[in-house]
Amino acid sequence: MRDGETKRDIRDTDLDRPALEAALARIWNTPEGLWGALATVDHKIIGRRYVITAFVFLALGGVLAMLMRLQLAQPEARVLGPDRYNQIFTMHGSNMMFLFAVPVMEAVGVYLVPLMVGTRNIAFPRLNAFSYWIFLAGGALLWISFVLDMGPDVGWFAYVPLSGPQYGFGKRADIWAQMITFTELSALAVSVEIVVTILKQRAPGMSLDKIPLFVWSMLVTSFVVIMAMPAIMIASSTLILDRLVGTHLFNPAEGGDVLLWQHLFWFFGHPEVYIIFLPAVGMVSTMTATFARRPVFGDLAMVMALIATGILAFGLWVHHMFVTGLPRLGESFFTASSMAIAIPAGVQIFCWLATLWDGKPIFKTPLLFVIGFIVTFVIGGLTGVMVASVPFDTQVHDTYFVVAHFHYVLIGGAVFPLLGAIYYWFPKITGRMMSESLGRSAFWLIFIGFNMTFFPMHILGLQGMPRRIYTYQPDMPWHDLNLFVSVSSLILVAGFLLFFFDAIRSARRGLPAGDNPWDAPTLEWATSSPPPSFNFSYIPVVKAANPLWEQPDVLAVAGGLRINSRELIISTVASAEPEAREASPRNSIWPFVAALATTVMLISSIFTPWAVVWGSIPIVVALIGWFWPKGTPEDES
Amino acid sequence: MKLRATARLRALIPALALAGCTGWQSAIDVHGASAISLKHLIVVIMATCSVVWALVIATLIVALWRRREARESAIALDPRRQRRMTLAVGGAVAATVIVISAFTVSSFFTTRQLTAAGADDLTIKVRGLQWWWGVEYFGSKPELRFETANEIHIPVGRNVRVQLEGLDVIHSFWVPSLAGKQDLIPGRPNEITIRAERAGVYRGQCAEFCGLQHAHMAFFVVAEEQRAFEAWTALQRDNAVASSDAEVIAGQRVFLSRPCAACHAIRGTAANGKIGPDLTHVGGRKYIAAGLLETTRGSLAAWIADPQTLKPGNNMPMVPLAAEELRSVSAYLASLK
To answer: Which residue, A172, A100, A177, is CA-closest to A419?
Structure first.
C-alpha cells in the first residue's frame, strides 16, 4: 500500500457501527428522484422492479387466459374470432414464458443471490440495470403491438413455414422474433452476473459445500441459460433473415429445412422449462428447511440432482418432435433420456419428503405452497414421463393432455414455489409481513382452482381435443368439461386477486417483520429488513452451511474494506478465501441510454435491415459513455 | 336400481357415452389396431403412475402429521435416523429407476408392435392444405387413380398405408380412434398405417397449429366391408354424372360460368381447378368444408352464400350469386353423389 493512499482511505475497521453505516449509506445509497431511479445500479431496487414488472405481465397473461376460457366455454362461441384468438394464445404463451416465468425467477435471483452470498452488490451492476430496461422494452414491444392488433399469431413456438415469409403476413412474426431478442439479451446478461457473483463474490468462508441450495439452483440455471439462449438467438435471427432479407434457410422449395427450426427452437425450448423449474427447486429447498426446522436432507444429493437436471435438460428436445417422422432409433434414445430426468426429480422429491419427515413442520403459508407444489408437481412429472414415451405421445401430443401436463409442471412446479417464496421473502424485501390468514385463503383458492381448471384437460386431451383451436363443434363431446374448466378458472383468478391484494396492502400496512421473522438459517436474514443499500454493515464470515442456525451468536465479520468508495470482497471459487478488494461500479445513466439505443435499433430493424447499421451508432456512443474512464477510485483498482 | 345408476353414470359422463355409441374422435374409444395397443400402453402407464402418486402423497401426509419427539435444535440430527433415511431415499430412487426402465422398454415394444403396412397394402396419399385434406387413391393402372377430399374410405381389417404430404404449412394427421398422429411437413414426406377393426365412421382432425382455421380442419375415415369399399371406389372413379333435372343443369351452368371452376375440379366437366377440394362426388360425402357442416342442399347453399362467416379466414371467397343461382348451384352440387 502506498503512503499517499492510506491517508485518503477510510476503512470499515476505523469507525464504530453508526458512523460506519452512515458512511456506507453515503456512498451506496441511490439518490431520490427520477434521475436516481434511472441511474441506479442497486441490485435490490432492480430486482424489485424486475419482480413487480414480471408480476404485471403475469396478470396480463392471466387476462388473456380468461379471454380464451370465455371463448372455449361454449362450442362455436363468437366471443373471439380466429385471428384474435390466435394472437391471444400466442401472446399468452410468449408472455408467460418470456416475460413472466424466466424473468421472475432471474429477478428473485438478482435480489437474493448477493444477499445470500453476503456481498454488497451483484457483479456487473450496470449490466444488470441495462438488462432490466431491455426486458421492459421487449415486453412493451410485444404488448403495444398486441393492442395495435399487430400481435404475433403463430404460437409461442412460431413454427415455420407458418411464421415464414410466405404464410406469416404483416410484421407479426417479426415482432415475436424481435421480442425474443430482447428477452434473451436480458436473460443472458443476468445469468452472467449471477454466475460471477456466485463464483467470485461469496462471503469469506462460504466454500462450495456451504452455498445455500437456492444459490446453487440459480448457478445451475444461469449456466443453462448461457448454453440454451444462443440456440433461440440463432433461430430468431435466421427467421428474421428469411423474412426480411430473403434467405431461404427454412424454405424447402429452395433447399431449406422446416425441421431445422424445430430442432433449434426446442434445443432452447426444453431447457427453458428447467430454467423456470430449477430456481423453483431452490426456493422449495430453502422454505422446506426453514419450516421443517432442519437443514434439507441430502444436500449433496440435491446439488447433484440440480446439476444432473441442468445437463440432461439438453438431451430431451426431440421429445417435442416425436410425431415429425424422425428415425425410430433416435426417438427411442430421446424416450430414454426424457424418462431419465425423472431420476434427479425423484431424488429431490424424496429428499424433501425425508426433510419434512424428520423435521418439525410449522404450517405457515410458504409451507402450504410447498405442500401444494409437491402434490401437483408430482402429477406434472408423472404425465411428463407419460409423454416421454413415443407411442403414448403419438396420441396425446398437441392435445389438451399436454396443456394440462405443462400447466401442472409450470404452475404446480414453479408458480406455487414462487408464490410461497414471495410470502417467505416479502418481509425481507419490504420489512413487513404479508397476512397469514389471507395467505391461507389465497393458497386454498389457488390450489383448488388450479386443479379444477387443469385436471379435466387431461381427459379432454384423451377425448381427442387438440390444442390451439379457437372453437369446437357442438357435436364434439367436449363442451361440458370445457364449461367446467372455464367456471373453475374463476376460482383460480379469485386466488390470484387475493394474493395481489394481500401483497399490495401488506407492503404499506403489514406488521413490521424484524430481521429474521421465520428464524431462517441463511445470510439474507442476517441484515435488516429491508436491507440497507450496502446490504451488510460488515461482511460476514461464514463457517457453516446454515450460518444463522449454527453460528447463533454474533456472526464473525471480515473487515478492511474501503468505505469512501464502493468496494466488495472477491474470493476464490472453491473455498471462498478472500483474494482482493474490488471496486463496484457506481450509479450511471448510461445503461439506460444504451438500452434505449438498443431498443430503437432492434425495433427499427423489423422494418429495415439497414437499421442494424445506422442503429449501432447510438449504441456505440452509449457504450463509450458507459465505459469512459472517469478518474474515480473504481478505476484505480 | 342398478340400471338407474348406470343411466346416471352415463348422464354424468356424456362424453364417454357419446363416444361409445358413435366411434367419434377419442384415444380411449378405440377401433383400430394401433389405437388399441396404444390404449393398452396408456392404461398401464397411467395406472402405474397413479400408484406412484398415491404412495408419494401418503408419505407426504404421514411426514407432515406423524407424532414426533421434541428435538433440541434445528441442527441436532440423529445419525441413526439419517442412515435410515438415506436407505429409504436410496430405495425410492432405485424403485424410480426400475419403473421408468419398465416404461421405456414397454414403449419400445409397443412401437415395434404397431402395424406397419408394406408396399403391397392399399396405399393412399393424403395432402394437408390450409384448411382441408386432399385424398388420392391409386390403382394398378393410372386410370384407376382418383381424388377426393376430407373423407377417406378404407376396408375393415386391412392395413392401409397413408402417405402424408404437407403442401403449405405443417399439419398433423390424427384419427385417435384408429392410430396415433403423424405430421405432414413440407419437404419431408411421412407415412402412417391405419387399420380399422370395426366398420364405422371415425373422425380425425388436424393436430398441428396451422393458422386461422386450424379448429375447422377435420376429416372422416369411413371403414366399411370390402364389398362396400369396392363399390365406393368404383363410384368415385366415375366422372360426375349430370342429371336431367332442369335445376341441376342450371346449377352446373352457374358453376362453370362463375369463378367456382377456377379453384375446384369436377371430373367430367370443364371445371379443372386445383386450389380447392375436388367436388366430383361432393354430394355423397358426409360433411362439407372439412367437417364443418353435414352435407345437405341447405348447408351447401349456406356455405356458398357466405363462407367467410362460417369459417372466417378460409381461402374460399364469397362469390356474389343471385338467389336463383345459389339455389340451382347447391342443387347441382348436392346431386353429385
So the answer is: A100
Q: Which of A83, A356, A473 sits opposite B313 (nearest CB)?
A: A83
Q: Of how many residues is chain A composed?
A: 637
Domain enclosing residue A49, as ranges? 33-525+587-624
Each as own residue / partner, the long-range contacts of residues A330-335 (CB below 8 Å, 24 or more positions apart, any chain) are: A331/A390, A331/B111, A332/A390, A332/B107, A332/B108, A332/B111, A334/A388, A335/A388, A335/A389, A335/A390, A335/B104, A335/B107, A335/B108
Helices B14-22 and B2-12 cross at an angle (nearest 10°) of 90
Taking the C-alpha atoms of residue A73 and residue A65, their distance in angstroms, rounded to an integer, is 12
User: From the CA of B157, how many Å to the nearest CA of chain A?
Assistant: 21
- How far is Cα A420 from Cα A436, in angstroms, rounded to an integer? 12
Q: What confidence score (pLDDT) does residue A554 get? A: 60
What φ, ψ does residue A246 adopt, rounded to 5°? Answer: 90, 25
Do B185 and A258 make contact, defined as CB atoms within 8 angstroms?
Answer: yes
Secondary structure letter of residue A562 according to DSSP: B
Query: Is residue A88 in some structural domain?
Result: yes
Secondary structure (3-state) at B109: helix
| Domain assignment present for A374 | yes
Nearest by CB: A477 against B14, B53, B104:
B14
Q: Give me the CATH number covering residue A325.
A: 1.20.210.10
Contacts of A176 in chain B (CB under 8 A): none
A41, A132 contact by CB (below 8 A): no
Quick check: B5 pLDDT over 50? no
Taking a C-beta distance cutoff of 8 angstroms, is the pair A559, A11 a contact?
yes
- CA angle, corner B117, sides to B114 and B119, nearest 5? 155
The domain spans of chain B are 19-66+79-237, 246-335
Cα(A368)–Cα(A444) distance, integer angstroms: 9
Residues paired with B132 in a beta bridge: B129
Whether this prediction's pTM lies above 0.90 is answered by yes
A342 phi-psi bin (left φ>0, alpha ψ -120 to 50, beta other): alpha
| CATH architecture, domain defined by B19-66+79-237 | Sandwich (2.60)
pLDDT tens-digit series, residues A8-28: 567 777 788 889 999 999 999
pLDDT tens for B306-322 read 999 999 999 999 999 99
3-class SS at B147? strand
CB B254 within 8 A of CB B328: yes
- A632: confidence class by pLDDT, cuts 50, 70, 90: low
Out of B103, B168, B181, whose CB is closest to A394? B181
Cα angle A331-A336-A342, degrees, rounded to a multiple of 5: 135
Does position A3 have pLDDT exceeding 60, yes or no?
no
From the list A416, A366, A414, the residue with the least C-alpha distance to A520 is: A366
The count of structural domains within chain A is 1
Contacts of B205 in chain A (CB under 8 A): 464, 466
Q: Answer yes or no: do A464 and B46 touch at CB < 8 A.
A: no
Q: Rounded to a whole number, what is the distance in Å from the CA of B295 to chain A's nearest CA? A: 15
Residue position matching grid coordinates 413487480: A52
> Omega of the bond prior to A161 within 30 degrees of 0, cis?
yes
Handedness of CA A315, A321, A322, A324 (dihedral sign): negative
Poorest-confidence range of A37-41, A622-626, B64-68? B64-68
β-strand pairing of B122-129 with B132-137: antiparallel
The ipTM estimated for the assembled molecules is 0.92
Please indicate, yes or no, if residue A390 is contained in any of the structural domains.
yes
A567 domain residue, yes or no: no
Fold held by B246-335: Immunoglobulin-like (2.60.40)
Contact between B23 and A467 (Cβ < 8 Å): no
C-alpha A296 chain-centroid distance:
23
Contact A342 B172 (CB under 8 A): no
